[in-house]
Amino acid sequence: MQRAPFLITIGFVLAGLSIAAVAGEPKPARFNSSAEILKWMDSYRSKPEPLRAAAAIHELSTLGELRNPESAGVYLGFAAGILAANPDKVDELVAKMLPMPPEDQWLVVRAIAYSGVPRWHFVMAKIRQRVSARDAMVQRYLEGLLPILTQYRLESPKPDWFGRLGQKLSFASKPTIKPVVLEPSPELLDTFWGYYYATGNRMPVQNIIGMLPWSTNKDELEKLTLGGMAKYTLASNASRDPSLLAMIKSMQPSEPKNVQPVLKDVTEAADDVDVSRIRREMLASLDNLRRKGSQSRRNVAWWGQVGEGALAVGCIAAAVAGQVQFGIPCVVGGAVSSGGLQLWSSQD
User: What is the pTM of this model?
Assistant: First the structure.
């Protein structure tokens, strides 16, 4: 009879400890700024937390960081990578990202499409009413009229001599249907980096490496800019990410001949932590082409057409490390100011 109260007491003590343990479990701290989120994204692969990642995307919306697609590419890629890495939790993760204001709903829609999970069409259709502001966008993705990451092409294939001859001799009245292709752009370069931060996969790195030959382009400023930014961000990220550096070194021998010397220069800059050299050389190449190229390419107004994203991408590698001291005027995780365009386009 005396044993029962003792057991009951022990039971209450254990129950109390259990409740205290649950109550004492630390909840993930909220992010106070996009800079904090970028830093956390950079180290995400060391401790993946998919649900917190989805919550971070939602918080970015609250911070107003998703309203400009040109400067939100890294967040889009990160969201898509999180979904791709967790196909069994896609519904839960998407629900965690929502709801979003109408102006930000594009990111969730595109992240689902870019994730490439086997049932992405179903997931997108399922949330259609929750992203009603982007209903037309949803429909175009479901119909295959908008490109996804697997449809990325560095350059559209040009028809050979027989193909061009056939086009000239064709009497067909129906216009040729242009294939749905995802073309390279500054925001897409950011997207590839976001996808890598979330997954550590080779795919986005391979696509970034594919742009490297453009860093030596002597005829087209847009290609030179993208190639230069690909080279700069690869060197910058690899200089502080041993896993990435090892990855690109292992990929170098199998790359095409026009890629290997540029990639070798990237790995050497990363090994020596001499990323500033890459940036100086990039600026010099851009300035040289702008001054010596054709009149249409020398026109400073062309820089406005490149888009602020081309300059903002240069901030990503520095921003995630909290080291924005390279002289590139930017907002962490956001687009550069128009003053940035003037600074980059006036290297006389």
Answer: 0.78
